[in-house]
Amino acid sequence: MAYSIRFPRRHDKADRNGRYAVRLCITKNKRRKYIALDLYADPAYWDEAGEQFIILRNLKGAEQKAENKQCEAGNALLAKYKVRAREIVERFEIEGIDWTLNQFEDAFLNTSKQGKFNAYFTDRIAELHATGHIGNSQTYKQTQDILKSYDRKLDQRLFSDIDLRYVRGFDMFLQKRGCCGNTRKFYFKALRAILNRANAEGVGSVATYPFGRGGFEVSKLEEATAKRYLPAAELSKLKSTTASNPQCEYARKLFLFSYYCYGISFIDMAMLTAAQIKQMEDGDYIVYKRQKIKRQKGVKPISIKITPAIRQLIGSLQAASPTVDDFLLPIVTRSGYTGERLYMHIRARYSKYQKYLRLLAEELGIDFHLTSYVSRHTAAMTLQRNNIPREVISQMLGHADLETTNIYLDSFDNEVINEAAKVL
Question: Can you give the residue ranges of the Tyr recombinase domain (predicted)?
Answer without folding.
Answer: 225-422
